[in-house]
Amino acid sequence: MKSFREKFAICVLALGSFVGVAHAAQVIVFEAPLDNRNQEVSAVFAANRDLGRAWVDVQLDAYSGSEGLPGRDVISRLVEGLYYDSARKQVLYRTASDIIVCAEDATFLGSTYLNNTGQCLLTPRTEQRKIDDGFHIRERTMVKVIFDAQTSAASGRAGASNQMTGETTVGK
Question: Is it the case that residue 145 has pLDDT exceeding 90?
């Protein structure tokens, strides 16, 4: 017969496996120096629905010149385990033990776009770094975009739906 402590420990472990959010993966998708102070960085999911492929588009918007017109560079980055499922119409991320829904197809005025579910965060971050070029040490603003897939016992599995929008932007 099991003791009360053993039963209690088993119950706590079982409950802990069903409650809360655990990080499945955190990957640096993009890292580069910011070229000017008026540059903004954002990241969104993108997909080729016909080929079943998905990736992250990092968007660099710079406002320069007297007109203040934006210039946009889009840099596409693959994330291992990220793909588009055309039957489910979802961008999925496969881990060793789970499949997480990152984005779902949505339509607006006849146009299809990817709606982020909030289970895979794309977070731009800036930091000051000291750069040594061999002659001088200078401070440089660096930006990185982090892909952070999360899993939860109650939501986030393939087939689940959450209607959070999800473009994340960082600007100086």
Answer: yes
Interval 81-138: pLDDT, tens: 999 999 999 999 998 888 999 999 999 999 999 999 999 999 999 889 898 989 999 9
Write the CB contacts of 111 (distance below 8 Å, at least 6 apart in sequence): none
Quickly count helices (H) and strands (E) in the chain. Answer: 1, 11
- Residue 6 is given by DSSP the state H
Which among 112, 104, 109 has a CA at the least distance from the CA of 165?
104
| Rounded CA separation 117/103 (Å) | 5
> 24: closest CA among 154, 157, 152, 151?
151
Structure-block tokens of residue 67:
């007109």
- Give the span between the Cα atoms of 89 and 93, in whole angstroms: 13
CB-CB contact of 77 with 70 (8 Å): no
Question: Judging by DSSP bridges, how do beta strands 90-94 and 120-132 pair with one another?
Answer: unpaired
Asked whether the beta carbons of 78 and 55 are under 8 A apart, the reply is yes
